[in-house]
Amino acid sequence: MKNSHVLVALMLLTSRPLNAQLNWQTFDVPGSTYTWIDGIDGETIAGSFYDGSTTKGFLYNRQTEVFNILQAPSADWTLPLAISNGTVVGSIGSNSSYVRNGFAYYSGSNSWSLLNPPQGVQNDLEAYGIDGANIVGGTGSGMSFVLNGSNWNFFNSPFGTASSAEGISGGKIVGRYYNIGVNGGGGYIKENDNWTLLNVAGATETVPRDVDGNMIIGQYRMGNWTTRSFLFDGANWTYLDAPSANSTWAYGVDGNTIVGSYNDASDVSHGFILTVPEPSALSLLAVGLGGLAILRRRRS
Fold it and tell me: How confident is the model at residue 223 (pLDDT cuts 50, 70, 90)?
């Protein structure tokens, strides 16, 4: 295997008012206690919400303003995590078990399909990303995977004992690596057999979540439970902190639109839709740290 190990480092410069150039929009499902957005494809966003008793998924078209609740059959909770061409992927599960099942939902036919791995592979996985016919994700045992139709490809990164594939764009996969039983970890970019490290300098954990062309988004932590988000366009890093947020999680990117969630000062989770300047206008931004608040069952 040909491996290319390249470290992408982060230099902290003086703070610049780039946040003022970012268009942040809060999105809350009406009547929900918490809202999370995880995926975007054109005008359609996918995510989940908690209504006080159950976690359900949703699809929302920003142009037509059509809202659909997604609740997988025989599942106690449904987490849509990515969308491409009307196909939604994510995970479902029961409140009595920690086992997750990956799923694909086809909005055109309103049909559901479980992603059942080959015999001998534990059925505890989540589908995190999709691009066309390719679905990526991670297993409970710490393996990354790519699924195309009925063809499964399981792999690990050369950087740790475990990994998960979080996003895919064409032949480029981004994900996280870590060592089982050890906190922290870092990010990777995989293009065919070429591997690249993607780590925020000084961070105890870097997790790329999605990729669209050269645009990679995700989160990182600096030595504690504080979580912040980033955008890396192949040359520049931009920190993403929702206004008045304790913490910000970026999960999906499509063109110059980023979606995710943030916690406010009361630790209530809200979805966000963020429009960023064109890549040529992006520059490095270093701003203050916030605090990590509510956790939910999703990408670990």
Answer: confident
Q: Residue range 203-209: average pLDDT?
A: 95
Task: Give the span between the Cα atoms of 248 and 226, in whole angstroms.
Answer: 9
pLDDT for the residue numbered 239 = 87
Q: Where are the alpha helices (DSSP H) in the chain?
A: none
Burial of 27 (0-12, 13-18, 19+ CB in 10 A): middle
Name which of 12-26, 112-126, 167-181, 215-229 the model is least confident about.
12-26
Lookup: tokens for 284: 């490095």
- Taking alpha carbons only, the member of 92, 70, 41 closest to residue 210 is 41
How high is the pLDDT of residue 279?
Answer: 55
Query: CB of 206 within 8 A of CB of 170?
Result: no
Closest CA relative to residue 168, chosen from 199, 197, 205, 130: 130
In which residue are the tokens 């009307």 written? 86
Q: Match 């063109």 to its residue by tokens.
A: 255
Question: CATH assignment of 7-281?
Answer: 2.120.10.30
**Longest Cα–Cα distance in the chain:** 53
Could you list the beta-strand ranges (E) of 13-142.
23-27, 34-41, 44-50, 55-61, 67-70, 77-84, 87-93, 100-106, 111-115, 125-131, 134-139
pTM as predicted: 0.87
- One-letter identity of residue 179: N
Q: Other CB atoms closer than 10 Å to residue 293's CB: what's the count?
A: 18
Instruction: Among 194-198, 240-244, 260-264, name the one with the lowest average pLDDT.
Output: 240-244
Residue 44: both structure tokens together: 């359609």
